[in-house]
Predict the structure.
Amino acid sequence: MSDNENKVYEVLKELNINFEKREHPAVFTCEEAEEFTGDMKGVHTKNLFLRNYKGNHHYLIVTKDSKTLNIKEFEKKIGEKNMGFASKERLMKYLGLTPGGVSIFGLINDETNAVKLIVDKSILENEFINSHPNVNTATLNLSVVDLKKFIKWSGNEFEFMEI
């Protein structure tokens, strides 16, 4: 188990957050994950790490795995222009993660709270959420109430919006 994954479990324990863990082979797409986690209760998520054109604002977007993010519409909602996916170097610098392991729990590694979290409001309609623990070889299931507790703990700026 990696240090990055261990940090997730340490923080969840510190916050008294219960979760179920399912280990599986490495997955790189939502479709691949579905094969191993499709029967888990709750909403399945995908996580996107974006930056603005200047590279001075970074966003972690968490949405249902079935949704597609229209970047142009998203830019209008948050008042940015020319957004794109952040490089793997930026992903490592800001969230301490590698491609395939992008997760809301990457906020644990954002010690300067430089990344703004955007969570799709539709996720809040569910009782449970599924997310990687900063590695793509496991999926955690936890309550949305506990997810909100984690988000507040992170100290990152966040917003719930329609995506």
Summary: The first strand starts at residue 20 and ends at 23.
